[in-house]
Backbone:
């Protein structure tokens, strides 16, 4: 039976590649992102089953997503909380309060909202997989990335706690921790696009691997580096 997969931030970057990997795997893929035109082009390109515009920082949009998915599919097998962004990459002293709040809402709150929204459905199913996309910033430190890193570290630790809550119901929760790849993320933050060798497709293959494990197995978290990324100390 084809699995029902929901990917946020699916119009580009990691999200688009993740949605494409699941579609090629024969799964039914639901895609969400803020830019509806860009999202629809991505859906047509990769063969997604359904796409709708969504702001993951708004709980009412999560409620609407739940209604759409439960009405059309009556279940959700895999949730990939991928949506995120830097918003502002600079020293903490230069942040406005609104910028701090926006970074946390987009990168951490949205993941919590997504897991909360579909937790009861997956509990009732007695199966399901939640995959939350963090960042190596959760584990390593660079100047000007402090606020973003705080949010992504929250995703990593939230995922661990969420797994313990869902484990008795047969539901898996995993955190994928990717290094930098050329996704448009850096350009959107006005810091210059990375030349690192890691590709969005590499993260997509990791997510698919995690989801394709037998239901008896779960990956707590997995970090994926580009072979050329230099970190000292690692």
Residues:
């Amino acid at each position: 039976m084809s699995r029902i997969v929901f990917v946020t931030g699916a119009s580009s970057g990691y999200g688009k590649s993740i949605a494409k990997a699941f579609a090629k795997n024969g799964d039914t893929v639901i895609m969400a992102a803020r830019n509806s035109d860009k999202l629809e082009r991505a859906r047509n390109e990769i063969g997604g089953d359904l796409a709708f515009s969504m702001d993951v920082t708004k709980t009412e949009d999560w409620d609407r997503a739940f209604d759409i998915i439960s009405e059309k599919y009556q279940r959700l097998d895999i949730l990939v909380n991928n949506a995120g962004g830097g918003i502002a990459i600079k020293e903490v002293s230069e942040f406005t309060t609104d910028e701090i709040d926006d970074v946390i809402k987009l990168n951490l709150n949205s993941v919590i909202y997504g897991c909360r929204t579909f937790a009861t459905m997956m509990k009732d199913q007695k199966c399901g997989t939640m995959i939350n996309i963090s960042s190596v910033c959760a584990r390593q430190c660079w100047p000007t990335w402090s606020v973003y890193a705080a949010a992504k570290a929250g995703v990593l630790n939230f995922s661990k706690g969420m797994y313990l809550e869902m484990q008795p119901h047969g539901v898996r929760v995993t955190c994928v921790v990717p290094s930098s790849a050329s996704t448009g993320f850096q350009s959107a933050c006005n810091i210059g696009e990375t030349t690192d060798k890691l590709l969005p497709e590499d993260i997509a293959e990791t997510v698919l691997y995690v989801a394709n494990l037998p239901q008896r197995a779960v990956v707590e978290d997995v970090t994926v580096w580009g072979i050329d990324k230099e970190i000292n100390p690692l």
